[in-house]
Amino acid sequence: MPAASAIRDYLMPYAGASDSTRLPVLTSNRMLSDLNAVLQQLFAGSQMEHKSLLVRGPGTITLDAVTAESTAITFDDYESYMQGCTILITGDARENRLVKSNGTVALENPFMGNTGTNVTAAIHYDCATVDVNIGKIYAPISLDRKWEVQLIDRAIIDEVRFGLNRRSIARPARASIEAALDSSATPSRRIIFDTLPDTAYLLHFRADVRAPRVTSFDDARDYLLPNGLDESILKPLVLQAFSTFPDFTGDQQRVLQPAQIAAAQWADFKR
C-alpha cells in the first residue's frame, strides 16, 4: 500500500472511521495537514546528503513543425528532462531553448529560419532540473567525481551564451544554480552549464533534502522517509499530532511514549 494512504488508514480508527470513502473532509484534511507538518519537522535541519544527477549527451530530434519568427513549435516527442535545454534548429544559426509553459512546448526565442515541417534539430542538455525534494546545493560539485565544476553567477553564463552564436561542445567546467519551475510548473532548481556537454556525465554534489510534500492520499510513493522508516517513526509521530484533533477517539497519553521513541530513533538516524 502506498505510504500516504497507509498513514490515513492507520489514523482512521482513532477518528471512529473504517471506510476511507466515507471519511469526512474535515477529518481527511486534518490527517493530511498533520502528515505534512510532521514531515517538515523531521526534515528541518537535516544533514546534507550526497546526490547525483544525470547530464545527458547531445542528441538529434525532429520537430514536427516550426514557424518563421515565432516561438511556436509542434514537438510530440518532448520529455520533461528537456526543459530549459539548448536546441540548435536547422536553418537558424542561433542557439535557442526548449521551454514548457501551461502544458505547451515552445521556444524561448523566435525561430529565425524558414517555416517548415519535419525539421531536424540538435538538442544539448546544458540544463539539468533538480528533483523538487532537493534544497540548497553545496560546492564542490563534480562530473563523474573526476572534474570539479565551478559555480558562478548566471549573468556570466548568459554573457557566454549570448556573446556567441553557438557555444563550444565540450566537458562543462562552470555552472550556475537558479530557482526555476519544472515542466509541471512545480518550483524547483536547475543547473545550467557554460558549455554544451559533449557526452553523458553523472553530476555529483551534496545538498539539503526538503521534506516530501503530500498533496493527497492518492500519492503513489511507497515510502516518505528514507530506509523505509515510515512504520517505526512516521506513524507514531503523525498519530501524536492527530491526537489533538477534537474528534480523536484514542488515549492521548498512550500515544506520547511511542512518539518520543520515534523522535529519538530519527535523531539517531540523522547522526
Secondary structure blueprint with pairings:
Blueprint: H1 3-11, H2 25-43, E1 49-55, E2 59-66, E3 73-74, E4 86-89, E5 96-101, E6 104-107, E7 116-124, E8 127-130, E9 134-143, E10 147-151, H3 154-163, E11 174-181, E12 187-193, E13 201-209, H4 230-242, H5 256-270
Helix pairs in contact: 1-2, 1-4, 2-4, 4-5
Overview of the structural elements:
There is one protein chain. With 271 residues, the protein is of the alpha+beta class. It folds into three domains: 3-44 and 211-270; 59-124, Beta Barrel (Elongation Factor Tu (Ef-tu), domain 3), CATH 2.40.30.180; 127-208, no CATH class. The protein is 24% helix and 31% strand. It has five helices and 13 strands. It has a seven-stranded mixed β-sheet with strand order 1-13-9-10-11-12-8, with no helix packed on it. It has a six-stranded antiparallel β-sheet with strand order 3-2-7-4-5-6, with no helix packed on it. Helix 1 crosses helix 4 and helix 4 packs across helix 5. The longest helix has 19 residues, at 25-43. It starts with a helix and ends with a helix.
User: Biggest sheet, open or closed, and with what strands and sense?
Assistant: 7 strands, mixed
What form results from the Cα inertia axes? elongated
Can you write the helix and strand succession as a string? HHEEEEEEEEEEHEEEHH
Mean pLDDT: 90
Q: What's the short version?
A:
By secondary structure, the chain is of the alpha+beta class. Helices cover about 25% and strands about 30% of the residues.
